[in-house]
Amino acid sequence: MFAREGYALIAASAIIGGALFALGLQFGMADHLIFTALGLMVFGFTLWFFRDPRRTPPPRADGLLLAPADGKVVEIILEHDPLYLKGPARRISIFLSPLNVHVNRSPASGVIEFDQYVPGEYLVAWHPKASEKNERSQLGLMHPTGTPVLFKQIAGAVARRIVYHVTVGDTLKAGERFGIVKFGSRMDILVPPHIPIFAQVGDRVVGGETIMGHLISSDGEA
Q1: Pick the catalytic residue: 13, 109, 131, 185?
Q2: Domain extents for the chain?
Q3: What pTM was estimated for this model as a whole?
Q4: Which of 32, 157, 23 is nearest to 98 (CA)?
């Protein structure tokens, strides 16, 4: 299965591949093989990048904080969030290489209360300032326990196109698909500091399946 956001680019890569094959016919066998190989590489990489595998959230996912994307946890820090939590927050940052699945999934169940798209720069996605300076979407979700969760799609040096399909008032389930960032990128999750976090820096995570933490209200109720 392939991400619908990639259909146009998949079609374009097929056309480019066909053009390279046809161009190769104008030359000798060796050149023809080179052009054909280039065309297959372009088409094959595009298919690989836009793959959209089925994911199964863990049991009782409605009470969990899940990884919103495939990749590597590169940072877990405490900071102040002025956007949605409006106070202290623990930020978990996941870096997606160009080889990772780039479909993004909701880290928690709840209702979208905050939706902001920010055009910006294109620092490398693992740069500490990427979450403040790069092109990004910023989505605030209220969990049924009353716990706010802010998650961000952040474009990297290669990624130049953020796509998401939710807005204020929409309800999401933990692990539900909501968008994609094309090519290398990053995703941040921000939760209140009292939320138990199981993830550690260096962990490899799978979007919609890996448990990052347990969502509870400020009085300790799940």
Answers
A1: 185
A2: 4-49, 61-214
A3: 0.81
A4: 157
